[in-house]
Amino acid sequence: RKWGKSYWQLSYTHRGKGGTRYVSDKRYQDVKQETENYKKFKEIYLELVDLSIELSKLIDKEFNL
Description:
Elements: E1 7-14, E2 17-24, H1 25-62
Antiparallel strand pairs: 1-2
């Protein structure tokens, strides 16, 4: 960019649309931590969905559905 400062580029997809944000050196560590936290959240969320589906299958099997 033309502003003459160093920056970091953050690219993402949300609701099927891509976006880009520019992060200053000052905010870099905060944004990095936020993205790492989001990755952990996403892993836990996907595991929860998998377990929920498995539980549903077991309940269906027990009640012969």
